[in-house]
Design brief:
727 residues, two-stranded antiparallel sheet, Tetracycline Repressor, domain 2
Length: 727
């Protein structure tokens, strides 16, 4: 039996480029001893294995352009099965000291005798002939594999395997189990070499050299032929007939090819903080172009080649690239920083990659089963969480920037524009764009992210409004046009922004109303500061003979000119407030006069009050005020003051109280003090007025008149005349 070193060396094959020198001894020459034959045998094996390795090294280098990568699974599997079979063969063989039969082929008395009956596949030929080949064939299996004649190589291997199995079954190797092991190793190594060549072809399929359709078709036929040759593991455990699993090997290499191509996109140059979002966007764009180009190539060229052999290449490549892209995207997600980078990843995954137009053609078929998520749910949730955290900071910063822009406008004393007849401030456009852009961007990714973004915007805007209000009112830019522009902006937010996102921004209603009221109050305070001194000349001697009310009304008309550029709801509301203020302040001057009128002057004063009431009413009616309820207040007081028939004063007082239920007893006393009717009549009228006030209170108080407030805000000081009226 050969030495252990001989068995470990294994059979090796000559390269097709190196001539094979037969080692058959000449006739008449003395045969070498067993030791010399063993030594010569070992020397004869080394060139063959080196040639075999060189052949497959060249094939792998040609396919990948780098050092060959053997499939460790295939090699381990072949080696494991080989030595298991070898151990079984050794255990079943004859004793070491038994004399070998001289009639059988093999080694006898130290002589090596080639047998033509073995058709070049006997143990002798496997150790000395070099390349594995069938008798009558011009090329060895290694040559055929190197030349990528896959079907021919597989057919030779299949025939060698069939003959070797038959010889084993006929107990040909009963006296030489190591010979069977060498021959079996030879076949297994060539099977592995053919599998390695299949892998090399798959790896170079998507390369720049184009697609060899005929070669891919042949490859698919070889894989199917191997499956048909080895449908299932043999019952006796013979490793030669064990399935090679080339279909799984093909799918593994397809995944490896997709992974390597995806990883080559800007490999080692993932964008960091320096490159920012633009670098990540560029990388993803390049990744999308590569995947699109490769899958189009698979669909148009690779898939038809495999389809001829009934191979589902499109589904395999699609899933392979999907998995490779998912792995690359998760790597990028791990290193993503900042709101922009996180959004680019989310947007690319949900909109770009998942788009039906991603592959550039609607005709590209999708697999029957849906693809798994591009990003794992936990990774997606983490990205969204990180994005919203950064988004909160970013949106708050954006509102800070808007406030700074507005403050710069105030410093520059820029007047607001008039758009479509209304004062306009850039604040409205800035806020609308800020909210709309972020909500739209989030909505393109998911409804949940859109709702979260709306909440973030609402919270940030709610905190911004009080800051903006305070900063503006404390600035030197407070003017009627700017106040009106800000009122318009707040009303625009209430009517358009809240209406655009119903159910999401209700929390902004209160701060917007509060800001609007603050700007309206400041607007009215400006007018009040201008006209308040003009009320002091009312109810004086000069008032009886001069038109002192007209300058006041002129200022009101000028003020109302700004209200024409305010949106209608707030303009009318403000105008009515001005109307109420003028009537209220007029009555306040009447109820606390600087001078007392008697006789003819009292009658003249009553007439003058009537004329002023007409002027005020006509002025506000011309301005468009709808506060018609204010028109009866001054005339009622004027009628009480100038009534000639004292008994009719009761009716005027009833009209006044019914029209303005918010009038108090102090106001009635002040009015009666102007008239000086006498103690008994005053007491009678005061008692009747109190009954009317109690009845109005039971009927609902000020609410009975529609919550109109006029006299309630007029303070009447207690004077000597009022005290006398009470007494």
């Amino acid at each position: 039996m050969p030495s252990p070193q001989t068995v470990a060396s294994g059979p090796e094959l000559h390269s097709p480029r190196e001539p094979v020198v037969p080692q058959i001894p000449a006739q008449g020459t003395r045969r070498a001893s067993s030791e010399d034959a063993s030594s010569a045998h070992r020397e004869g094996l080394r060139p063959g294995l080196g040639t075999f390795r060189r052949a497959f090294s060249k094939a792998s280098q040609r396919a990948s352009g780098c050092a060959p990568q053997e499939d460790p699974g295939l090699l381990r599997r072949s080696a494991r099965l080989l030595f298991r079979s070898l151990r079984r063969a050794l255990d079943d063989g004859p004793a070491a000291d038994q004399t070998l039969a001289t009639t059988g082929p093999g080694v006898a008395d130290g002589r090596e005798v080639p047998s033509r009956a073995m058709d070049s596949v006997s143990p002798q030929s496997s150790t000395e002939a070099g390349p594995v080949e069938l008798e009558g064939e011009d090329k060895s299996v290694a040559d055929l594999i190197t030349e990528r004649k896959l079907l021919a190589a597989f057919e030779q291997l299949r025939q060698l395997e069939t003959r070797l199995v038959a010889e084993k079954a006929s107990r040909t190797f009963e006296q030489d189990p190591t010979g069977f092991a060498r021959r079996a190793m030879d076949v297994c190594l060539h099977y592995d070499g053919l599998a390695a060549e299949i892998g090399a072809i798959v790896l170079e399929t998507l390369g720049p050299d184009g697609v060899d359709v005929a070669l891919l078709t042949e490859l698919a036929h070889v894989v199917r032929a191997e499956e048909e040759t080895h449908p299932e593991p043999p019952a006796d455990g013979d490793f030669l007939r064990t399935p090679r699993h080339w279909r799984q090997h093909w799918e593994d290499v397809v995944r490896q090819s997709a992974r390597e191509r995806v990883q080559q996109v800007s490999a080692g140059e993932a964008p960091g903080a320096a490159e920012g979002a633009s670098g990540l966007a560029q990388l993803l764009a390049e990744l999308g172009r590569l995947v699109r180009r490769d899958l189009q190539k698979v669909q148009l060229e690779v898939h038809p080649a495999y389809a001829a052999a009934g191979y589902p290449a499109w589904e395999a490549y699609l899933r392979a690239f999907h998995g490779a892209v998912a792995q690359r995207l998760q790597e990028l997600a791990h290193d993503a920083r900042g709101c922009e980078q996180l959004y680019i990843l989310l947007d690319w995954a949900s909109n770009v990659y998942s788009s039906p137009d991603f592959l550039g053609s609607q005709d590209l078929a999708l697999p029957m089963e849906p693809l798994p998520p591009l990003l794992a749910p936990d990774v997606w949730a983490r990205l969204e969480s990180d994005y919203t955290s950064f988004l909160e900071t970013k949106i708050a910063s954006c509102f800070d920037g808007i406030l700074q822009v507005e403050q710069s406008r105030w410093v520059a004393a820029e007047a607001p524009d008039v758009l479509q007849g209304h004062y306009h401030t850039p604040l409205s456009i800035d806020v609308h764009m800020l909210v709309a852009e972020h909500v739209k961007a989030a909505g393109a990714i998911s409804a949940e992210l859109e709702a979260t973004t709306l909440r973030i915007c609402a919270r940030a805007f709610g905190l911004f409004l009080p800051r903006f209000e305070k900063a503006f009112l404390e600035s030197g830019a407070v003017s009627e046009p700017n106040l009106c522009a800000n009122i318009n902006a707040c009303e625009d937010f209430r009517t358009h922004l809240l209406a655009r996102f119903p159910g999401s921004l209700e929390e902004l209603e209160k701060p917007l109303v509060a800001a609007t009221c603050a700007f309206q109050k400041r607007l009215l305070q400006g007018l009040q500061g201008d006209v308040q001194p003009l009320f002091k000349v009312l109810c004086t001697k000069a008032w009886l003979t001069q038109d002192v009310l007209q300058p006041l009304l002129d200022k009101v008309v000028a003020f109302a000119g700004h209200l024409e550029h305010v949106v209608p709801p707030r303009a009318q509301e403000t105008l009515q407030e001005v109307h109420r203020y003028v009537v209220r302040e007029y009555l306040a001057q009447v109820l606390r006069p600087r001078e007392r009128f008697r006789g003819v002057e009292r009658v003249s004063g009553s007439q003058k009050m009537g004329l002023d009431a007409q002027a005020i009413g006509s002025t506000f009616q011309g301005l468009g005020s709808e506060a018609t309820w204010l028109g009866r207040a001054i005339p009622c007081v004027a009628d009480i003051l100038g009534e000639t028939y004292k008994d009719d004063i009761r009716g005027h007082l009833e009209t006044l109280i019914r029209s303005y239920p918010d009038i108090r007893r102090d106001h009635v006393l002040a009015i009666l003090a102007l008239r000086r009717l006498g103690h008994r009549r005053n007491q009678h009228l005061l008692t009747h007025a109190q009954d009317l006030l109690r009845a109005a209170a039971k009927a609902g108080g000020p609410g009975a008149a529609g919550s109109h407030v006029l006299f309630e805000e007029i303070e009447v000081p207690t004077s000597v005349d009022v005290l006398i009226t009470c007494i």
